[in-house]
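Q: Please design a sequence for this.
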């Protein structure tokens, strides 16, 4: 990992936490309720004021379906895809056998387009019902 001072670590964590929470359609209240964290702690993490203990980082990563490195990296890794949000959605598609067909999607697909296709496939698998 790149050498970063404490403030840089807090800011990177805050930025990544916000990104991955958004992609998982989770908010601050979800973390507080589902992971039994203090509201003030989650607020401090999201505002870059504090950094959680490693056991809490691991719990958050597991909850959001990502790695600890994803939360701690100064810049999230996007790999093959040109947009980090698309990369994360593509990984979820890879992990979901019902939507794995999306791996053949173009690498410049927007996050919105990929989300639309994933949701369409899921609706089709449920028999076309609305959510």
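A: Design:
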């Amino acid at each position: 990992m790149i050498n970063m001072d404490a403030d840089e670590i807090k800011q990177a964590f805050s930025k990544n936490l916000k990104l991955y929470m958004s992609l998982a359609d989770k908010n601050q209240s979800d973390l507080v309720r589902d992971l039994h964290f203090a509201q003030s702690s989650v607020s401090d993490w999201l505002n870059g004021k504090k950094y959680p203990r490693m056991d809490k980082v691991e719990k958050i990563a597991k909850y959001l379906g990502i790695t600890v490195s994803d939360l701690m990296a100064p810049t999230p890794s996007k790999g093959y895809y040109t947009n980090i949000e698309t990369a994360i959605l593509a990984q979820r598609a890879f992990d979901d056998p019902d939507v794995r067909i999306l791996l053949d999607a173009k690498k410049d697909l927007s996050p919105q387009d990929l989300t639309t296709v994933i949701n369409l496939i899921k609706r089709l698998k449920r028999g076309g019902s609305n959510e």
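Q: Thanks. Anything notable?
A: Residues 61 and 70 are 8 Å apart (CA to CA). The radius of gyration is 16 Å.
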